[in-house]
UniProtKB/TrEMBL annotation:
This is Glycoside hydrolase. Residues 1-34 form the signal peptide. Pfam families: Glyco_hydro_16 (PF00722). Keywords: Hydrolase, Signal. PROSITE patterns: GH16_2 (PS51762). GO terms for molecular function: hydrolase activity, hydrolyzing O-glycosyl compounds.
Amino acid sequence: MKTRNFKLNNPFMLRNILALVGCLLLTAVLSAQGDEPRPPMPFSDPNNQGGWVLNPEVSDEFDGSELDTTKWFIEGQDGRYYIWKGRAPAQFAPHNVIVEDGKLKLRTQWEPDYPFDQGGYSESGSDPYGAFEGQPLPVTTAGVVTKKRFLNGYMEVRSKAGHAAITAAFWAIGYEQELDVYEQMGAPKIDGSILSNSVRTAVHDWSPPAVRPTQAFGYDEKNLPYRTSDDFHVYGAEWGEDYLKIYRDGRLTYHVTQDELGTDWVLNNPMEIWLDSEAFSWLGLPHAAELPVDFEIDYVRVWQKPDDNLLDRAFYGFEGPILYQDKPRPLDLVPESSVPNEYQKFWLLDTASAKYLSIIEGEYATGVNSLEFRGLEKNETLTVDKVVALSPEGAVDLPAGEYTLSVKVWLDQGRAPETLHLGLEDPEVVIPVPLEGIERRKWVELEKCFRKTTPSSAADQFRIEIRQSSLPDLRPARLLIDDIRIRPVE
């Protein structure tokens, strides 16, 4: 395992400077007790004041001889591509993914004999891959993607761009969102949005209609005291529930909050990490004499903070689908897709319930969405016994035990429903949440304790129910629901 970046936090090394003999004795004692070396900490928080915990499923030290394909999808391996084949004229080629010297190297090469896909890429015009403006340009690159997604955390790489007109990119995508932690280019041929001594960070909104330009916010750090292809540097992004911080070599360079952005804040769902190199024709293209070059990554590390919430926070905050990450991710799953499949599923509303319940944007406790019960119009009555929002099967997995359920509600002025009925399906647990007397036109968090005597089945679901018997006789007020959480009672 690499030890760089956390030497100063290792007490054995510090003691070695002061007293070598004492250190050896202490190390021998600790080794006998089975003590482990301290894991690496974020370069921006070496003393771990944030309480970070490394997530090994989306972290990699690249210490082996080949890429760990239990963690990574390699674009083009076995002829399989996820979402796209690269930005034409350059095409992803799996043989350009190399692990050696403790690093991941994404190579860009000039390969006239490579069998380029003749379909091309729509954003790059009518040329097929391997050609530009009717002339051959046989450039191959590489791209890899984590197989798992994660929600919030601190992601960090130590990397160096290749010295050519080809990008080095560290980015992430999820449902309706994209975070480009950086786009770099070691030697662009045209002055433009990316310079050899700049870092571009951007966030894109892929909610439909996903019409370019999709950029929602971001920044450009220019006039760096180095070219990004000169040497390795550490780049990090701290992605919180309502903020984003960007770091370079441990120094904060950009900070933005949801409070500043409102509904332009789109980073609300789990994301996967991408590392790739692309051809940006508007910044110039490489030629044979300038290749091969490598985009080198020393490590990828993702840390998160412990959370005792047992529900998927994005899904139960009505931001997007729940993910079944034990199922294969569809190769055509673009960020703007709201089509349910085995990998992603959405809240279920029958026809009668959909008349009164809907997920809306712009009114929320957190994120940008909430579930709305729209209330009833003058002289209107609820035509069914109850309206229900139901999670997909398997969206709840709780052992037997005692729990605290919390939910945030917003009640407009008017006559309140008496009770909001929440609960579980298999086995059935009904959790009535009284609404009478709560403050109006304000997000209020309500809590209820409940007990499960048997664990969830594989088909367990979460139910949100508004019953006709709980509504006032005349015109019940509009109700919003957000941030449903379940925590164990200690």
